[in-house]
């Protein structure tokens, strides 16, 4: 059996079936996880409860001492990211529950106006007026075959006759017209830089010295 801290077990197996828990962990760990699971559910149902209320409820329900109850509270708070993920689904469930309860109460009073509003709110929130999205059958999608070609007729463009021959003719023509062009080697530019870029200070001859740098 694994020997892990309760917080680690809760992160891994908070909602694992009890039989599986007993196969994986020791009895004290299983008892602790099952208790924290109930506390977790209570916390979801009472999101505005104070720490004191949580501790008092835990002591009353499970008969443990205050130190153990606060230790459980620390674990529940450590699982808050999990609570955050579940909170939206939980509030959706609670909203539907309240709307249906309102509908039933209005039905008993024969308050058709309230019944209509509750039914409309329920339908709008659950989007029952929209068609179910159809899953895309990815396994039936056939990959489109593509073949490279230089034939413009596939785009509806009439191909130029004797294209390659025409290209060669133009190459020979323009090469012949530019026969006088010659490649020359690179030559160092003969510039009188001292005359083109005189120093700002007439006394300065352009020589870099320590005094200039400082």
Structure description:
The chain has 214 residues and is an all-alpha fold. The protein has 10 helices and no strands.
Q: Spans with pLDDT under 50 lasting ≥5 residues?
A: 210-214
Give the number of DSSP strands. Answer: 0
- Average per-residue pLDDT, rounded, comes to 79
Strand residues, percent: under 5%
Radius of gyration: 42 Å
Q: Give me the number of helical elements.
A: 10
Let me know the largest β-sheet: none
Structural class: mainly alpha
Amount of helix: 55-70%
Order of helices and strands: HHHHHHHHHH
Write the topology of this structure.
Elements: H1 6-13, H2 18-24, H3 27-45, H4 51-62, H5 66-78, H6 80-109, H7 112-126, H8 163-177, H9 193-196, H10 210-213
Helix pairs in contact: 1-3, 3-5, 4-5, 6-7
List keywords for this structure.
214 residues, mainly alpha, 59% helix
Compact description:
With 214 residues, the protein is mainly α. The chain contains ten helices and no strands.
